[in-house]
Every structure is written in C-alpha cells, then in structure tokens.
C-alpha cells in the first residue's frame, strides 16, 4: 500500500487546511495517508523548522497562511525540494479581492484574540519545532516534557499536539546505534516520557515508509529482529531513567497526550 504524509500548516487552528486535505485524501482509499496538523505558525523560524520535517517525510503540504511572505516561503521551498503544496487561502483571497476591488487585511490569525493564551501557544509551538528530533539537546532541561522513542513512534506529531496545548516539548530519537545526549540525565525523570509500541506495528509503518521511497521494504530498518532490539533498548533505558512509559500502539495522538498531561498535572493548560 502506497504511503504518503500530508501536512496541514496554518496561522490559525489548521482546521480548514486539514479538512481540505482529508476531503481530497478520502478519494484515495487504497493509499495509506498520515495527516499532521501544524497550527499557529506565524514566524519564519517556526515555518522553516516544519518545512525541514516536511522535506524529510516528503510530505504534501496544504496551507492556510494569510501572510503572503510565509505562503511564498512554502511554495518556493516545495518547488526547490520537489514537494507538492496546495495554497488554500491566497488564491481565494485574490479572487475575492478582484471582485471587491480592494486588498485584504493580510493579518495572520485575525480570527483569534491576541491574548496571553495565544502567545503561550506560539511560544510553545516555536520551542517544540526548534527542539524536534534531538535538535538542541542543551534545551532539554528547559522543556515541560521530553519525549523519547525509537523511530516511527509518532514523537513529532505528539510534540506539536502538546505544543498546541501550550506545552513546551523536546523529543529525542533513541536506539542502540544512536548516541544519547548526556543532557537527558539532567532532566527531572517526571518530565520524561518514554514511548514504546509493538514490533508488528513499527514494522508495518517502516515498510510503508520504505515503499513510499521506492525502496525495497525488507531492509534492516524494517527487520523485526532489529526492531525487537530497539524496543528492548528503549525499555531498558526508560527503566534506568525511571520515567513514565506509554505504549502507543493502540492509542491516538490525543489519547497519548491526555495521559501525558494528566501525569504531569498539566490539565490547566489550554
């Protein structure tokens, strides 16, 4: 089954971009489509971080950014990196502007009150993007939550979902052949979350990823024995750190996030 990743990027909640993407994606029942939403993106630094992830995942990008410069940044990046992108707001605004005879306001996030909660979300989102996938380990102690997990345990989508709840997240890939940042031992174990899963689920996701790249799906990356060793390494590390372990194989991103927020008494975050 062909697998693709779709990113919905917005300066607002991302609901519109996500809905357009899912409406289009629903017409491809034989495809395995993963959707990731990146809301409240209002700065170049935040957007650049997400675009790097999009490049790594060869994602199709649906975006609703009223800021023309940010929108163009996506279009230019997509063209330069052979990615597909769909602008869901600039062309509609242009059509309305032509009919009305005057220009739009072009104010990002216009439908949102610029209150403290809004800026806390922006701050958390920017932090989480900049500290994705093991980047900037010196910031681990500054995070509200540090997420550990082997490849394909949904660390990045979970991080961005929590960031939208005003939680600053660092996520770190782990494995027998990956050097663990020494800073992890300076983090309060209560703030560390260890993600685990079952071998067959990880293998299925990895094989789909290899197939999407046009690569033989039977590689060391998708080998069940290697995945067993990675999961064993992860669980041993989690017990050594004394952190909370969450099995994500039967949980949605929302369910996992709820467990994390409740365990850290972050219920008050919006």
From TrEMBL:
InterPro entries the record matches: Kinase-pyrophosphorylase, PPDK_reg
EC class of the enzyme, as a word: transferase
Substrates-to-products reaction catalysed: N(tele)-phospho-L-histidyl/O-phospho-L-threonyl-[pyruvate, phosphate dikinase] + phosphate + H(+) = N(tele)-phospho-L-histidyl/L-threonyl-[pyruvate, phosphate dikinase] + diphosphate; N(tele)-phospho-L-histidyl/L-threonyl-[pyruvate, phosphate dikinase] + ADP = N(tele)-phospho-L-histidyl/O-phospho-L-threonyl-[pyruvate, phosphate dikinase] + AMP + H(+)
Domain of life from the UniProt record: Bacteria
EC number(s) from the headed UniProt entry: 2.7.11.32, 2.7.4.27
Record Pfam families: Kinase-PPPase
GO MF, any single term: ADP binding
Residues binding ADP: 149-156
Annotated keywords: Kinase, Nucleotide-binding, Serine/threonine-protein kinase, Transferase
Role summary: Bifunctional serine/threonine kinase and phosphorylase involved in the regulation of the pyruvate, phosphate dikinase (PPDK) by catalyzing its phosphorylation/dephosphorylation.
Sequence similarity: Belongs to the pyruvate, phosphate/water dikinase regulatory protein family. PDRP subfamily.
PANTHER family, A to Z: PYRUVATE, PHOSPHATE DIKINASE REGULATORY PROTEIN 1, CHLOROPLASTIC
Name assigned to this protein: Putative pyruvate, phosphate dikinase regulatory protein
